[in-house]
Amino acid sequence: MKGRILFVLALILILSGNTIAFAHEGDMKVPSTSGLNGNVQAGHSMEGDSQDMEGMDMSGDSHDMEGMDMGGSGHSHGPVVETPPNVKVLGAFGAVNLAFILVGIWNKWFRRRGEI
Amino acid sequence: MVMPTKKISEVKNQIVQKKPFDFLSIPILKNFIQSRWYPGIFQWIAFVVFSVIVYELVAGTVDPSRNLGTSLTWVLWWPIVPLLFLFIGRFWCAICPFGKLSDIIRKTIGSVRPTPRFLRKYGLWLIDIFFIAITYSDHIWGIVESPRGSGYLLLLLVTMVVATSVFYERRTFCKTLCFLGGLSGNYSRSGALELRGTPEICKSCKTQSCFKGSEKAEGCPMFQYVRTMDSSADCNLCGNCVKSCPNDSIRISPRVPTAELWGIKNPKIEHAFLAAVIMGIVFVQNITMVSIWQDILTAIGAVTGTDNYNVNFTVAFIISMLIPILLLLGTAKITSLTGGSLAKVKQNFVRFGYAIIPLDLAGHLAHNLFHIITEGKAIWYNTVYFIGMNVTRGDLAFASAPTVQMLQYIIIAIGMVGSIYTAYRIGNKGSFKALMPYYSLMIFLAIINIYLFSLPMMHRV
Fold first, then answer.
1. Are A61 and A26 in contact (CB under 8 A)?
2. Prediction ipTM score
3. Does pTM surpass 0.80?
4. Is-contact B368 B82, C-beta < 8 A?
5. Among residues 9-48 of chain A, which lie with CB inside 8 Å of chain B?
6. Distance CA A81, CA A89 (A)
């Protein structure tokens, strides 16, 4: 039991630290398909950055990918413009679900009252 | 009619010598499964986590690398879930939050109306279509990369669950509409766990409480009748039958992975089609994340005459879906022509389509292994941030890319062996020459996978 606790603590320490060198550290995020589609979040532009992805030839123009996050270490997405929850969409989901629930209540508690 | 206890013991003693190990022979495990804590305790945990995930996705940060919902869903859950199917069958479906929601709705305001004939007949095709549609829309609208998109997808599924649970009995949604249900059904066939009845006991049972339910638990939510159940594809391991069976007939046993695929009694084209489609989806997921994707888009653009991403992606998507389907069809045709199998092309397509499943599972696992190993620490960072602690964010990877690649190759090789052996068993251990086309198909599919995994891949978060 002691060993397990120590193992968990060690795991927490390792994961929360930033000192271990990983071979993957130099990698960067290449574009999401949605990014290629133009649905790029603000701040995902790779303009001006020239880091090459491991094993990828980035020298030609054909490899310039709009929306590619090539900056920084790790898989950082760069600055992101935060948006509040979309109340209209959530409201629509809520309304549709509520409608189904009301149908269920009417069906079970009123229309078929006493049948079950 | 309930069998006398003495008779049950005699029959069980006779059977126990020739049957595989039964996990229900472990008293503590059996008592737990028969208790009201199972699977409820897991369901509620999953339900709470799911609620947090949905909240985070629709109201949290829009940065996917910092959104807890995104990392828990696409970096943790999605890679792990095929492993669960492999080792413990469809247990996930028993504790799935959508399933729990369905149970709550049905028990409170639901109807006991039977599943419509249309859904019963075409449900598997609908699952196939939904699975393709979700994959397609993910690439068009970037659902995975967008926390909001992922949240709306989950809410759409919630709506479907609510709608079906209000109107129809049992888990109609899980059985006939859930895209993950189709996937899990196919994967669980090659899984290492099975729940079965004891035929010698079941044949004299008159209560059918496994299907109809009892005062201890409701009937099988997946419409299964244990007496005739010969597949793990539709068994959630929810334990209802274990609770209800008055004759102690149920057993849960380990088995050789892929064993169920060797002798499917009633093979269906929908399953074979889905198996081929999943391979196509693995291709799409890999291709769109590797370095040659731009070259492929450019090549397709040269043919279509447009650089519109949606158009060119759609062409690539259709080709990726068609490749495994046409390859399987072509192999079935070759086998029929060369006399390797006397069955018709369609029969061969359906029977041997199941042999692709181990390779599907391997492809799915290998692809997602990359995400969980190279992005896994995002789960930790985002969880810590979610609970209000500050932590220095570093690299997200647990291991290097070459290490992951090596693991991917090993997994694909295991999947290939599994698929080849499954083809060998489906072909009734036929001669090497007769089954050569299927072996070649599996090797070819494995080579495509290995080639794709050899290319640098991008991250999800």
1. no
2. 0.81
3. no
4. yes
5. 15-20, 22-25, 27, 29-39, 41
6. 19
